[in-house]
Design a protein that fits this description.
Blueprint lengths: L18 H39 L3 H24 L17 H4 L4
Length: 109
């Protein structure tokens, strides 16, 4: 027997709805899924347009951005690993840390 003392929900389940209501719910879910997919595709397009525009103003911008992002991610993971050492969380071997000077991160004209 369960130690939890709760009352079951009185809300109707999907199986309790009639055929017309089920069809409407399925249609709404499909519409939301389509909207989500279109939004995701639009965000990808906007990101590509931004990168293309920045590359026109600063050639090589996108590749430098990705390299800086990769370096920042490595540093973030390294910091997380070091902060987990005292907590008893599993600690993995650290990857070789690559540090770039501030001058290396600046765009080349």
């Amino acid at each position: 027997m369960s130690n939890f003392d709760f009352e079951p929900s009185q809300e109707p389940t999907f199986a309790d709805f009639d055929g017309k209501t089920r069809a409407e719910i399925k249609e709404l879910i499909a519409t939301l899924q389509n909207s989500h997919q279109l939004r995701y595709k639009l965000m990808n397009l906007e990101t590509w347009a931004l990168a293309e525009t920045m590359d026109q103003f600063l050639p090589g911008f996108w590749s430098r951005f990705l390299e800086n992002r990769r370096t920042a991610l490595k540093q973030f993971i390294e910091q997380k690993r070091h902060s987990n050492i005292g907590t008893g969380a599993p600690c993995h071997r650290s990857a070789k840390k690559t540090e770039r000077t501030e001058a290396e991160n600046l765009p080349v004209a």
